[in-house]
């Protein structure tokens, strides 16, 4: 969601159109309700059968609302659901359908906002700077992964412009309760103990921004019992910088994790993540993109060091208007054929069309 919101804002400013990506349903007496939606139909081309064909087309639908309680107090909520478009109308009709986000909270004037529910983990505040590719990207932002991506049961406080005292300085703090999921591979991967995250960013008035975030959570017994990854705590930090002005978008991110990056057999004891992206927004709607994305596991049991993912992305998006766009992206896989984690090494090409409101 962040990726597309950022892109929409950039495109809107270039094309001279409204940046709003929502359909207003109701707005009266301090109560507002908007409908948000997106349909992304795509086709992948690859020698890897798991990434060939219509494997990832989807539709998203959500609502966001606000209610003014007093001059200094506003209530708000957001919900978003994703429907897979690759399913038949048979037994697999609900496969892959899921709630992405759902939270409610209060805004307390300059003191900030406080909400609870399923929301983005604060480490993603930094990861989002480079999660801007047309189709791929965001590999380090694991969903249900120690506050690196969308997470369940998070209490989040955010403050913009440092209590109104310093424009551009934004702070956030977050707590996540224990989520001990099913005792299968995916359930163990998506579990977590109690923990917290902190985030800070500074936005200048000339397009330069910096961000840093840190998370520390307890690991579950099942995670510690896995063959790989040993430690009571999972830790995750990332820092990023971006330049977003004059039709140019440049961003880089570096981060590290301890016992938090999933691999076959459990988790990497340590991982180093680096991403960089460069894009340019032409006034005719064309936006070329070039990126490098990598993660390297360290001190992996019975292996040592190994690449978890490493690729170069070259792509282009064309925006017909604020609601309609099309894209093509080529992912050049840089993993060795004999990589010790047994990961796929095939290149992938993605072609797609997006309608959003």
Automatic annotation (TrEMBL):
Keywords: Cell outer membrane, Ion transport, Membrane, Porin, Signal, Transmembrane, Transport. SUPFAM superfamilies: Porins. It is a multi-pass membrane protein. The keyword Oxidoreductase does not apply. Residues 1-22 form the signal peptide. Its main location: membrane. It is found in: Cell outer membrane. One of its GO terms (biological process) is monoatomic ion transmembrane transport. One of its GO terms (molecular function) is porin activity. It comes from the Bacteria. Pfam families: Porin_1 (PF00267). One of its GO terms (cellular component) is cell outer membrane. Belongs to the Gram-negative porin family. Homotrimer. This is Porin OmpC. It comes from Pantoea latae. The lineage of its organism: Bacteria, Pseudomonadati, Pseudomonadota, Gammaproteobacteria, Enterobacterales.
